Every structure is written in C-alpha cells, then in structure tokens.
Inverse folding.
C-alpha cells in the first residue's frame, strides 16, 4: 500500500513520538535524589512516584484505549495523547508538594497508555511480515533515545538549573510534535476512498478469550511481567545506586551511565531486530527464544554488576546486560503479533503492557524501594544493593517462560 519512503517517514515520526514518551517517563529516575532532598521523603515514596503513581493509571487506561485503536483512527488517538502527556509533564515541574507531583505523574501515566499499542498497530500495517521485527526494533530504540535524553540532558539540566527545569524541557517539545504527527502520519483504514472506519465485530470479551486460550500468549505475558520488573522497575533506582553506593555525581551518572546504556541499547535493539528477522524467517520460534536467552543472561550479569564495588566494573557489566535486555524486547513483540491475530493487535499489546506495566512498572519500583528501606536497618546504604540483586530472580524466571512460549508458538500462529 505504501512506498518505501512513505513507510520510513511514518516510522521516523512514530520513533519521535515514542522518544517523547520515554523521555517524559524516565526523566524522573535521575531526579529522584533532588526530589527526595526537597520533599524529605523515603525510598518507598520515591518508588511510589516513579512506579505505582505512573503505572496504575497507565495500565487502567491502556486496554480501553487499545480497543479504540483496534476500531477507530489510531493517528488521532496517538496525537491527542501526545499533547496531553507533554502538557502534564510540564505540570510536574510546577508542583509545589510531593503529592502534587505524584498527581501530575498519574496524568502522564494515563496519557502515555495511548502511545505504544496504536503505534505498534500502525507499524504492523505499514510493513510486510518479513520486515516487522526490524521496524519494531527501530521503533523500540526510541526507548533508548528517550532514556538517554532523560539520563544525559535531564541530569545536566537538573544539575545546572534544578529538577523542575528538567521536567519543563522534557514536556514542552511534545506539544509541537503532536501537530507534526497529526499532519504526517497516515491511517491505513482510511485508505479506500476515505471511507468511514469499519466497526470491529469482535467484542472485548471474545478478543480476550481468544488471546488467553493461546498458551503461547499466556507464556509471553508472564515472561513480560517478570522482565518488566527489571526494565521498568528495578532499573529506575540505578542512578540512586550509583550516587549512594559507588559515589558518582549526578552529572557523572548522566554523562557516563547515560552514554553506556544509550550505546548498549542502540546496538542491542537494532541487532536484536535484525537477528530476529533472519532467524525467525527460518524458524518462527526464535522470536521467543532470543528473548529467553537475553533475559536469563541479563539477570546473571546484573547480579554481578550490583555486587561490584567499582563504578567502571559496573559500567562494563551493565553495558553487556542492557544490550542483551534491549535486544530481546523487539522479538517478543514480533512474536506476540504473530500469534494474536490482526483484529486484536492493539488489544494484545495493551494486555501485555497493562499487566507488565502495572506489576513490573508499578510494583517494581515500589518493591525495590520498600526492600531497600527494609534492608537499610541492618545493611545501611547496602540495602539498595541487595534489593536490586533480589529483583534479578524474577527476570531469570521470565526467560524460562519465553522459552516455553517458543515451544508452543507454532500451534497458535494467526495472520
């Protein structure tokens, strides 16, 4: 339907939209320490701010918005949400109390629930099946770009101008980007003589029933939940770990750690997508087995990294671990699209993100902060170290579930 130049233009715009999403989402991680000092709050409350306050409403709104995306204009849904989460991020910088900040983060989480499911659904319509893992890997790399901006630019601005300025910087450009996305993106469902969008005949209950009857989807869902305990949960506290236990400065965290995970993520994400397309064309089960290998190895490497007493040893181990972690993400979403069926693509992604974001992204930081406070009574500042090490166990178990996903995947393939 679309030429090569059109497809890649759309992908670039969606990449920028997703970059805004992840910049606004992750900038809070480098601001936890200055926020803690200004509002005098515990690590558990920081976990609430960075995790549950964001994730609960992100998860709650994700499924109904995905249903709209499976039936109506995905371009409109995406651009309205982008304008909303950008404006709410600016409001985070204007908060005068901890609870005002938490409330603004609730709004950001709700709006950002409309980012990934409609965008992935559009990408799958723009690209052929043998190009999707690569396209999704490039789109997923936006998480790296956003995280790198949060760690690098966000940390620099926070150290120079204060944490409020970092929120202003993260949110303001998204309002303009929403206009660009609205006039640039195409909605494939409107491609035939500008006809009205067709009503979806499959109801929510039927869609969910069909999904949960697929063992492969269920295994993938559980694996994603456990994996997100690391990627959306424990890793939020890495800047705090580096500052408290390895005595790094905020600017050093932004420059060095931000650069390390940025390069690791670009290499991992793009490499993972290309490798998945190549191996998946020979045996589709590799779309699940690559994430399995990545999760198990990542968990082991992060145990070693959080046990290190040297900043630079941590960086070397974290580079490899994060490269593997990000390399495993695009293939698992390609695997989910392969088994979910075309009429419930956005719904399937939303179900995964609902569960993984609520449990992994919501309770992950809260659990990490709670365990850190608990261990602090007997271990002092090492409490955060052992809290992070403990959170690696679920990630390794998640890799086992991805392996089981691959074993039964061929039974559930659907166009």
């Amino acid at each position: 339907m679309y030429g090569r130049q059109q497809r890649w233009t759309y992908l670039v715009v969606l990449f920028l939209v997703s970059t805004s999403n992840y910049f606004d989402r992750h900038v809070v991680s480098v601001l936890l320490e200055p926020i803690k000092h200004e509002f005098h709050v515990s690590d558990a409350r920081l976990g609430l701010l960075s995790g549950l306050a964001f994730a609960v409403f992100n998860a709650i709104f994700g499924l109904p918005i995905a249903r709209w995306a499976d039936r109506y204009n995905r371009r409109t849904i995406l651009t309205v949400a982008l304008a909303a989460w950008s404006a709410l991020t600016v409001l985070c910088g204007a908060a005068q109390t901890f609870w005002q900040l938490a409330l603004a983060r609730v709004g950001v989480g709700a709006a950002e629930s409309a980012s990934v499911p409609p965008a992935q659904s559009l990408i799958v319509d723009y690209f052929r099946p043998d190009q999707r893992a690569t396209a999704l890997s490039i789109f997923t790399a936006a998480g790296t770009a956003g995280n790198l901006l949060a760690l690098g630019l966000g940390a620099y601005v926070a150290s120079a101008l204060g944490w409020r300025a970092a929120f202003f910087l993260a949110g303001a450009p998204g309002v303009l980007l929403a206009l660009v996305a609205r006039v640039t993106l195409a909605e494939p469902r409107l491609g035939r003589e500008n006809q009205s969008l067709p009503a979806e005949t499959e109801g929510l209950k039927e869609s969910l029933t069909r999904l949960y009857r697929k063992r492969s989807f269920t295994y993938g869902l559980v694996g994603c939940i456990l994996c997100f305990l690391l990627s959306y949960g424990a890793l939020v506290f890495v800047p705090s770990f580096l500052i408290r236990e390895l005595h790094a400065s905020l600017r050093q965290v932004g420059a060095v750690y931000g650069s390390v995970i940025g390069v690791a993520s670009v290499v991992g994400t793009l490499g993972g997508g290309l490798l998945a397309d190549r191996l998946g064309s020979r045996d589709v089960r590799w779309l699940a087995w690559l994430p399995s290998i990545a999760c198990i190895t990542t968990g082991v490497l992060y145990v070693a990294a959080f046990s290190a007493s040297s900043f630079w040893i941590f960086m070397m181990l974290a580079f490899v671990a994060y490269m593997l972690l990000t390399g495993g993400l695009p293939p698992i979403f390609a695997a989910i699209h392969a088994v979910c069926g075309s009429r419930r693509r956005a719904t399937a992604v939303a179900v995964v993100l609902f569960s993984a974001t609520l449990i992994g992204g919501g309770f992950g930081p809260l659990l990490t902060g709670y365990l850190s406070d608990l261990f602090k009574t007997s271990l002092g500042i090492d409490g955060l170290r052992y809290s992070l090490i403990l959170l690696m166990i679920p990630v390794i178990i998640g890799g086992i579930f991805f392996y089981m996903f691959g074993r039964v995947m061929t039974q559930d393939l659907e166009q």
